[in-house]
Each structure stands twice: as structure tokens, then as C-alpha cells.
Amino acid sequence: MTVDLGNALKNSNNAGNPITLKSESLGKDAFRRLIRNRAALVGGIIIILLYVIMIFADKIAPFDFAQQTLSEQNAVPPWLMKVFPGMQAYGKPPVDNPNKYLLGADYVGRDILSRIIYGSRVSLIIAIIGPLISLVIGIIYGSISGFLECYLFLSASD
């Protein structure tokens, strides 16, 4: 927040009183700067979307992560064969429905998209647990340090 103190002093009627500037709270200022930063906003939306997908993985995933269809081993969707023509020798589209698997199937016929959705749960839980453990350790360590520092200063001044 930029304020011209020269004009504020000229226009003030209270010559001897201090000038008070109305400023935003720390939280409002941080939120305003976050909204202005487009990359941070897009990243935050992506992270929120990933956590929503993690929470509702049972509803979003088209198949169970462990469901196997051995007759559809290495199934490849038609759009992927158009993007990577060399894959035609390796993979084949599913017989009954070519668009059955959005990202294809692995070597035992499990849906890759479903496995990615369910697998994201582990990664995102670890992404939360790591900082929480650091927070708890930091709070304990800082509290002990602050408490012992008080005693160190008291004993040093005697």
C-alpha cells in the first residue's frame, strides 16, 4: 500500500497528532497477492482437484484397481494408436468395446486410469503427512527451545 505522506501531512487538520494509516490484515494481503499470481492460482486449483479425485476415487474410477481381464492384456485405446503408430505391433484394442479403457490396460488386463486414480491416494496422503510431522516436530522443538532459553537468560544474568 503506497501512501504519499507529504499530502497526508498538508491535508491533516490535527497538526500535532500522529497519522494513522488504514492497512489490510496480513491474511487479506496474502490472499490478495495469491489471487493476483496466476501460476499459484492454477497450481492451487490443480491440487484441490487432485484431492477431490482422491477422496471420491471409488466413484470416479471406471474400474476397480485390481480387476483383471486376461483377454484384454495390453489393450490400447484407438486414440493412443493414432498418436503412437508404432504401438500397433505391441498393443491391441479391446474386442468388445474399443474405448473401454481410456488410457489402456496393463499386462494382466487392469485399467491404467483406475490404477493411477487409486495410486494417487498414497502420494497425496504422504504429501500431507510429511509437512504435518514436520509441523509437530517444529512446534515441540521450538517450544522446548523457547522454554529453556528463558532459563538460560535468567541464569546468565545472576
Encode the helix/strand succession as letters.
HHHHHH
Distance between the termini: 46 Å
The largest sheet, given as strand count, sense and whether it forms a barrel, is: none
Strand content: under 5%
What is the global morphology?
elongated
**Unreliable runs, pLDDT <50, ≥5 residues?**
none
Quickly count the helices.
Answer: 6
Oligomer designation: single chain
Q: What level of helicity do the residues show? A: 55-70%
Kindly state the number of beta strands: 0
Query: Mean of the pLDDT scores?
Result: 82
Classification by helices and strands: mainly alpha
Q: What is the rounded Rg?
A: 29 Å
Layout of strands and helices, then pairs:
Layout: H1 5-11, H2 26-36, H3 38-55, H4 57-60, H5 78-83, H6 112-157
Helix pairs in contact: 3-6
Descriptive account of the structure:
The chain is 58% helix and 0% strand. It is built from 6 helices and no strands. Helix 3 crosses helix 6.
Provide a brief overview of the structure.
With 158 residues, the chain is an all-alpha fold. The protein is built from six helices and no strands. Helix content is 58%, strand content 0%.
Can you give keywords for this protein?
elongated, 0% strand, mainly alpha, 6 helices, 158 residues
